[in-house]
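Explain this record to help learners:
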Amino acid sequence: MLNHIKEAEKPDLLVWTGDNSPHDVWATTTESIINSTRVCTDEIKSIFEGVDMPIYPSAGNHDTWPIENEDFNKGPDADPSVHEMTHMW
């Protein structure tokens, strides 16, 4: 799908809206959420490497642990998964 977007659609920018982890909230952990985001980040970076296009990632409500419990007013270091996401880019 990402290759199609890159080659056929040729977007001017990419807005990545998150929700990278599975939605089986009973089985997720901070580590599994970070890993899911890292896998998605690596794939997007790999596919769009060398393309002159901004990529805007944002955290979805399933990209933090516990889910839907974000306090972005405390800054990126308040949640380990958000902290890690800031360093992936």
Notes: The two ends are 21 Å apart (CA to CA). Strands lie at 14-16, 55-57.
